[in-house]
Amino acid sequence: MCMVNHPKSAEIETAEMVRLDFEWKTVNNTVDCEVFVMRHMETWFGSTADKWDSGFPLGYTAKKACLTRLRKKYTIKLVTSKVNKHRSRVLAEASEHEKAMSLICHMYLNNKHAVNGVLEEFDGLVFMCVKLLDITDCTYYGFCPVKSN
Known about the structure:
single chain; disordered C terminus; mainly alpha; 5 helices
């Protein structure tokens, strides 16, 4: 802040830092720090920790689902921001990815009434494509072939 001559830089530099004890804190989650920071910046309006509602659920499963939704939300906002100098390239790659998944989905849905042996082979091909394209939720495309290990 000093480098940009912010009027509060000296005050902030000498301020005493206080670590708050959040009701929604996690113990072993070391991968979602950025999501927590973004959510904290989005929801804190100067209240004390006991009156602050971050919107994070307290249960593990609900919190994990919330973190996943927020990670997607923040990623989309960052990627599609007009100040992102890689925006056009990333959106073009996403478009190609979407075209590939739509084609796979179309092929799968049009062939799902095939003879079992052929369908199993086709399921294997679709599964490989889904894995290759790193799709975690293919239900969005209307199908999700399951491949047993």
